[in-house]
């Protein structure tokens, strides 16, 4: 068992991951199992480093002084030469000996080597220096920047590179010297290329959702909640104290419903694989690689609508979904469980760099629930990205339509009730908006951080279509009459929530994609050590999560058409507030670790999290 070299609290020089630059850091802890030091940089960023990436301050400064002392001597010797003499002739009265000539050639080789190394390093770490040079050099750091104030490093280096090119073109050195220079440069470049920076994947230490015990209970609690809600909606009196009778187990399973569920899933997969729609790149992974995604969710929705229209034309009874909704929910739950098992088994063979940062704890139950692999793919088919929007979200709209038709048939209505129309229209707008802005999902925590396990598989395939359609299902058995003025007020409320939700998300996504966009020139932001900025103007200067605020307002508007007789249709808005408050706490934790002091400054600038002047 090797002993640790650096103690807690010791100030040392730590290498920034992926670079050759060292900065002053403080050791905070040491992992005896992984042999990693947790260090804290001056800006508050905490990272795990290997012992080989840490050096004591004394040894680091010693080497720095040596390199700096040798550089001026070379520059002074080059300046001492007269312009009138040929570079190959020595000064008058100063004949060079053979040893002096060799030393001069060695100095030239060293200069060439250092020059060949300096240029690639400047280009590779230009982005890092933009946000960190002032901080680590002790200069004052501005807390806000404008998107149009970014200066491209290439413009700074262009005059120097042009001068170098002209000097090399008209150089009087022999071709033999040039060939040696090329060989030296090639050798040095090869040396740099074949020495990759090793990345050790960090284990998940902070367990969420109650850790192993909490996730184990959620695996059973989530399906039970869905089944309980569906049973309650079928009752004449859906009061909380009026528990529904348990159905017979054999009545919960229907092979026809299971077959239709499988057909639905693979039909959406076929639409996903169609070569229509643009292909975009996602955000960079920890390895720097970017995955490609085909954006055709809206086209899949149009094709699905056409298929449903054909079924209705041939008088297919879509209200069959209403009569067997419980069997469809059980089938979807069974399929999501089988999919989760497959995802976990295949993740055991996945490379370390492809594991999810939040699902790599080493505990089976926890990793199974949160998702062990970040982006599981079968060829180019991304399973998580596909399930995020396609089967569940489009299925939600189909179930709502089935509830509308069932209401008309059961109550002998020529047109649906006003409450049912509002619920269908509000939620249809939400789904169409998500599919139209499908590219925006690539920047969400579900895609960039969470693995694909039982939590997302069950949530996408079961929870979204069968819980989010609860208002429409409730209205079939418990019709509610509302007046036109009330309907108009509810519509205005939904439009306000939608406007906040969409404009805030668009503002965030556009800034993440291209911070230098002239359309965003009026936005101010706080720079961070990661190179990203934290918006402090617009919606994101109002509250930290304005998109969550818009989501909650819309959720309330979806429940209001059901009246106030029972609390059951308000389960969605209550659940959604709890969900978003919990997600906001997760965001807060991750952002504090990721951005350090910059996030603390942002929180001081924007004190309210979701609800202005309340929370």
TrEMBL record:
One of its GO terms (cellular component) is endoplasmic reticulum membrane. It comes from the Eukaryota. Keywords: Cholesterol biosynthesis, Cholesterol metabolism, Cytoplasm, DNA-binding, Endoplasmic reticulum, Lipid biosynthesis, Lipid metabolism, Membrane, Nucleus, Oxidoreductase, Phosphoprotein, Receptor, Steroid biosynthesis, Steroid metabolism, Sterol biosynthesis, Sterol metabolism, Transmembrane, Transmembrane helix. It is an enzyme of class 1 (oxidoreductase). Residues 101-112 have a biased composition (Basic and acidic residues). It is found in: Cytoplasm; Endoplasmic reticulum membrane; Nucleus inner membrane. Residues 4-62 form the Tudor domain. Residues 76-97 have a biased composition (Basic residues). Its main location: cytoplasm. InterPro entries: ERG24_DHCR-like, Lamin-B_rcpt_of_tudor, Sterol_reductase_CS, Tudor. It catalyses: 4,4-dimethyl-5alpha-cholesta-8,24-dien-3beta-ol + NADP(+) = 4,4-dimethyl-5alpha-cholesta-8,14,24-trien-3beta-ol + NADPH + H(+); 4,4-dimethyl-8,14-cholestadien-3beta-ol + NADPH + H(+) = 4,4-dimethyl-5alpha-cholest-8-en-3beta-ol + NADP(+); 5alpha-cholest-8,14-dien-3beta-ol + NADPH + H(+) = 5alpha-cholest-8-en-3beta-ol + NADP(+). Its EC number is 1.3.1.70. Pathway: Steroid biosynthesis; cholesterol biosynthesis. One of its GO terms (biological process) is cholesterol biosynthetic process. One of its GO terms (molecular function) is Delta14-sterol reductase activity. Pfam families: ERG4_ERG24, LBR_tudor. Belongs to the ERG4/ERG24 family. This is Delta(14)-sterol reductase LBR. It comes from Peucedramus taeniatus (Olive warbler). The lineage of its organism: Eukaryota, Metazoa, Chordata, Craniata, Vertebrata.
């Amino acid at each position: 068992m090797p002993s640790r070299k650096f103690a807690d609290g010791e100030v040392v020089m730590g290498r920034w991951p992926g670079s050759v630059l060292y900065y002053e850091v403080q050791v905070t802890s040491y992992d005896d199992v992984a042999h990693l030091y947790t260090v804290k940089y001056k800006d508050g960023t905490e990272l795990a480093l290997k012992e080989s990436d840490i050096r004591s301050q004394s040894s680091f400064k010693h080497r720095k002084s040596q390199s700096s002392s040798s550089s001026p001597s070379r520059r002074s010797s080059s300046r001492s030469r007269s312009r009138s003499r040929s570079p190959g002739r020595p000064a008058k009265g100063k004949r060079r000996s053979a040893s002096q000539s060799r030393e001069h050639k060695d100095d030239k080789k060293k200069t060439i080597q250092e020059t060949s190394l300096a240029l690639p390093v400047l280009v590779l770490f230009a982005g890092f220096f933009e946000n960190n040079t002032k901080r680590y050099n002790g200069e004052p750091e501005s807390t806000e920047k404008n998107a149009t104030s970014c200066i491209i490093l290439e413009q700074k280096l262009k005059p120097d590179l042009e001068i170098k090119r002209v000097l090399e073109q008209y150089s009087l050195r022999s071709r033999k010297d040039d060939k040696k220079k090329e060989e030296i440069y090639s050798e040095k470049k090869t040396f740099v290329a074949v020495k990759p920076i090793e990345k050790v994947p960090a284990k998940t230490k902070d367990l969420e959702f109650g850790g192993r015990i909490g996730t184990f209970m959620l695996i059973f609690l989530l399906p039970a909640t869905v089944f309980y809600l569906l049973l309650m909606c079928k009752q004449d009196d859906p009061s909380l104290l009026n528990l529904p009778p348990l159905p017979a187990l054999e009545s919960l399973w229907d092979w026809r419903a299971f077959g239709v569920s499988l057909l639905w899933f693979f039909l959406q997969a076929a639409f996903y694989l169609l070569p229509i729609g643009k292909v975009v790149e996602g955000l960079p992974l920890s390895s720097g690689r970017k995955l490609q995604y085909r954006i055709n969710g809206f086209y899949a929705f149009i094709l699905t609508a056409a298929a449903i229209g054909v079924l209705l034309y041939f008088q297919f009874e879509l209200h069959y979904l209403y009569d067997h909704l419980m069997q469809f929910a059980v089938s979807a739950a069974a399929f999501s469980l089988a999919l989760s098992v497959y995802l976990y088994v295949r993740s055991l063979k996945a490379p370390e760099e492809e594991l999810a940062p939040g699902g790599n704890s080493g505990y089976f139950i926890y990793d199974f629930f949160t998702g062990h692999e970040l982006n599981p793919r079968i060829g180019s088919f991304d399973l998580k990205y596909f399930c995020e929007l396609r089967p569940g979200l489009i299925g939600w709209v189909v179930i709502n339509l089935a509830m509308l038709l069932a209401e008309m048939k059961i109550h002998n209505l020529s047109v649906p009730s006003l409450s049912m129309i509002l619920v269908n229209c509000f939620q249809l707008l939400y789904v169409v908006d998500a599919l139209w802005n499908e590219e925006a999902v690539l920047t969400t925590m579900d895609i960039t951080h969470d693995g694909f396990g039982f939590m997302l598989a069950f949530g996408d395939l079961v929870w979204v279509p069968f819980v989010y359609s609860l208002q429409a299902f409730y209205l079939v058995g418990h019709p509610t009459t509302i007046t036109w003025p009330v309907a108009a007020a509810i519509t205005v409320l939904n439009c306000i929530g939608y406007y906040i939700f969409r404009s805030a998300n668009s503002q965030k996504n556009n800034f993440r994609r291209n911070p230098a966009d002239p359309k965003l020139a009026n936005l101010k932001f706080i720079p961070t050590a990661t190179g990203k900025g934290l918006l402090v103007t617009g919606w994101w200067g109002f509250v930290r999560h304005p998109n969550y605020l818009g989501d909650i307002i819309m959720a309330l508007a979806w429940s209001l058409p059901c009246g106030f007789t029972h609390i059951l249709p308000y389960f969605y808005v209550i659940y959604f507030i709890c969900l978003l408050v919990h997600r906001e706490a997760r965001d807060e934790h991750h952002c504090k670790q990721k951005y350090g002091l910059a996030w603390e400054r942002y929180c001081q600038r924007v004190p309210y999290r979701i609800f202005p002047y309340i929370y």
